[in-house]
Amino acid sequence: MECHKTSGQLVTLVTETTFSLITFSDLGLSQKVLSAVEDAGYRTPTPIQAGAIPPALAGRDILGIAQTGTGKTASFVLPMLSRLEKGRARARMPRTLILEPTRELAAQVQENFITYGKYHKLNIALLIGGVSFEEQNRKLERGADVLIATPGRLLDHQVIDEADRMLDMGFIPDIERIAKLIPFTRQTLFFSATMPAEIQRLSDGFLQNPEEVRVAPAASAATTVTQRVVACKSKDFEKRALLRDLIREQDNLKNAIIFCNRKRDVSDLFRSLERHGFSVGALHGDMDQHSRTAMLQGFRENKIQLLVASDVAARG
Ligand code: AMP
Fold first, then answer.
1. Which of 2, 25, 252, 313 is buried deepest, with most CB atoms within 10 A?
2. Residue 39: which pLDDT band, with cuts at 50, 70 and 90?
3. CB neighbours (10 Å) of residue 310?
4. Which residues line ligand 1 at a C-beta cut-off of 6 Å?
5. What spacing in Å lies between the alpha carbon of 119 and ligand 1's midpoint?
6. What is the pLDDT of residues 75-116, one digit of tens each?
7. How many angstroms separate the CA atoms of 267 and 265, rounded?
8. Which of 20, 26, 73, 114 best tests ligand 1's pocket when mutated (most atoms within 8 Å of CB)?
9. Shortest CA distance to 14 belongs to which of 221, 212, 197, 222?
10. Orientation of helix 197-206 relative to helix 171-181, angle to 10°
């Protein structure tokens, strides 16, 4: 393991080899959690799990930097489950608040709590846009151990008079407002794939003396994935033509997800591929929940071969 001192805090740089000998039972997790992890068939913790779980169990704040797909979810769900075994939920006072940028990610985190929390009796509430919240609200009334939410929906219910302003705001101001609503004495686990200045500023304001765990990006790409860079001309229509050629030259292409970084690019590319006769769907944050679910379902069932998605909608 390499340790670096930056701005007075200890940074743990985790590499694949560092933790190859560490097992889940070395991390200090409770027996119930260990049993669920064993049932899930995991043999060894991933680097972000090995780096983040022990300090999270010790009550430290965490700044975790790791790509999607590196086991980040379990690195906060597992220690949270262990810690939640002490104490009980109280009415309208969720014990843990988890904020996710998209509804799909929020639902995925809930699934993780159900899988890893199979030996716990936890009350989990999910507040996400586009889904009826009556039942979730009842759970909150009774007392939730875990509240998983997208910021928009959360503010909808906690600060109703701010709903119109929220519409005009981006994501970060929402989080800052939520931070003011939750108790000052808290443990915060903050995970991000990248650390642009805006996110760094947010985490600086949010975390107290965090343990910083960075997973080296080289360790995070799955070995089964072949990566290629293709040079292309800069005009959009030229990129689209090249993309069509790339798709057509794949033998046995079963399905594919094409990521774009803007919603407008998603729509343009989707329409273009459709015009050229491809079996294609689109997925981005402006679509209502019903269309998003239907689109994902169609893709899973191979009714749609290509899915064009904004990178935020597609994360995880
Ligand atoms: P995540 O980065 O949280 O989205 O996790 C990516 C995938 O890795 C999920 O399908 C998890 O079920 C799986 N996973 C998480 N932790 C482990 C582990 N320690 N060993 C094997 N698979 C894992």
1. 313
2. very high
3. 23
4. 42, 45-46, 49, 68-74, 316
5. 19
6. 999 999 999 998 777 777 778 888 887 788 888 999 999 999
7. 5
8. 73
9. 212
10. 0
